[in-house]
Amino acid sequence: MGGFSFARCLILIVAASTLAVCTANKKWQSGSYQYPKYTQAPNKIIVGGSEGWHFNFSYTDWALKNGPFYLNDTLVFKYDPPTENTTIPHSVYLLPNLRSFVTCSLTGAEMLADVTQGGGQGFEFVLKKWKPHYFACGQHDGIHCSLGQMKFFVMPMLRGY
User: Fold this and answer.
1) Segments of the chain assigned E as strands
2) What is the pLDDT of residues 75-114, one digit of tens each?
3) 100 close to 108: Cβ distance less than 8 angstroms
4) How far is CA 145 from CA 22, 27, 58, 68, 151, in A?
5) Upper half-sphere CA count for residue 25 (Cβ side, 13 Å)
6) 131 in Cβ contact with 77 (< 8 Å)
7) Taken in order 157, 61, 41, 121, is the CA torsion positive or negative?
């Protein structure tokens, strides 16, 4: 019974991360934090805002600052298709669980969009289920995810509650 199991370590990491985010957010501490405007109709949200879906950007921070997200909201992933020597290819995967998210394992993950689907209007994903959704870039065997760059998760909330 001594020692920590993976689940206990994970709970400890999540709790410490939550505490760190809450204490670091000055607006939260001062009570001046304002939630995004609630609407009855589903929202269309561009992942990363004007930055889009690319390397060297914290999507976890973006999700924390732009949430909450609601059931039937649409996440739009915009990224440039790869070109010779100029654009690094990206894709979008839905990871099956928290363990896959933490370890950036693509085993059992579902490819939602390949390297060509983020151009133009982008690839759209509707949050249809009330469960955590774990997203990551799967290019180069998930190296973008492993570097902590292109991954985030959302837990959609129910509207009107």
Assistant:
1) 44-46, 74-77, 92-95, 110-113, 123-126, 133-136, 151-154
2) 998 887 777 766 677 888 899 999 988 888 888 999 888 8
3) yes
4) 24, 29, 11, 22, 6
5) 15
6) no
7) negative
Q: What angle do CA 107, 110, 116 make, to 5 degrees?
A: 120
Q: What is the dihedral of CA 6, 12, 13, 17, to 10 degrees?
A: 160
Q: What is the pLDDT of residues 59-85, one digit of tens each?
A: 888 888 988 999 999 999 888 777 776
Residues constituting the chain: 161
Six token digits for residue 6: 């993976």
Cα 121 to Cα 99: distance, rounded to the nearest angstrom = 31
Query: Do 93 and 150 form a contact (C-beta atoms < 8 A)?
Result: no
Amino acid letter for position 74: T
* 153, β-bridge pairs: 134
- Are 138 and 109 contacting, i.e. CB atoms less than 8 angstroms apart? yes
